[in-house]
Amino acid sequence: MSNLTPAFDAALAGQSPTVFGAVSIQLPSAQVNLLDGAGVVTFGGRTYRGLDATYGTLASIEDLSEGTGDEAPSLSITLLPSGDAAAADLASATMQGSPVLIHIGAVDPASGAPIPDPQLIFVGELDVPRLTSKENGRELEYEVVSVFERLFEVDEGARLSPGFHKSIWEGELLFDDITGVTQTFYWGVEGANSVGAVTAVSSGQYGNKGGILF
Questions:
Q1: Pairing state of beta strands 137-146 and 119-134?
Q2: Which of 17, 22, 176, 189 could be disulfide-bonded to 103 (CB atoms 3.0-4.6 Å)?
């Protein structure tokens, strides 16, 4: 049974459906809504265009690949930046993690409006950019990973220390006042059965291990 709306199903069953792909990227400074072709389509409160005056055009959307084992589903999208400034902005480190929505839909040939409702096929975030210069311009390929990628993150940078504690809760002084802990906290390693004594918790004491304190 199809997950598409009856109107969308009927459009796809026609002889020459006008199908489009739409990509929405929520950058830190702007929302970029692009179509995989010329034209303008509005749905879901967003207007998608074949050309964004600031950031350029959408060149391609790679087929979605399923994840296995310790990998999440992912795909790649390729943008054609409108200029040097757009390319540098899109490839900057601040763009990593920007939310991405990818829809597929069809247009009513009589009205030019999208047929309700375009199907949301992927929700993810920008991961790794790769900027390639060519004779006639430049391409920016972005790896887009599923939101499930967050499930594989580890806390290798976490520290049982005042400095790390304040990096999450600014101004919180809990660890500054701990000087005589009598219980051992095993941080990032498997704990032993016996309990030893710890005389102090300092920023350097557990500096080479990571984990989560429950």
A1: antiparallel
A2: 22
Measured between alpha carbons, how far is 33 from 77 in angstroms, rounded to an integer? 13
pLDDT score of 57: 93
Contacts of 124 (CB under 8 A, 6+ apart): 73, 74, 75, 99, 100, 102, 144, 145, 146, 147, 149
- Is residue 157 packed enough to be buried (19+ CB in 10 Å), middle (13-18) or exposed (0-12)? exposed
Distance, in Å, from the CA atom of 213 to the CA atom of 86, rounded to the nearest integer, reads 42
Residue 138's nearest CA partner among 84, 58, 77 is 84
Phi, psi (5° rounding) for residue 167?
-70, -20
pLDDT at position 94 over 70: yes
Mean pLDDT (whole number) for 85-105: 89
A 10 A CB-CB count for 152 gives 11
Burial class of residue 139, CB neighbours in 10 A (0-12, 13-18, 19+): middle
Phi, psi of 77 (to 5 degrees): -120, 145
Can you say how many angstroms the Cα of residue 131 is from the centroid of all Cα atoms in its chain?
A: 18
Q: Are the C-beta atoms of residues 124 and 148 closer than 8 Å to each other?
A: no
Task: Give the integer Cα–Cα distance in Å for 13 and 5.
Answer: 12
The predicted-structure confidence for 120-149, as pLDDT tens digits, reads as follows 988 889 988 888 887 777 899 998 888 655
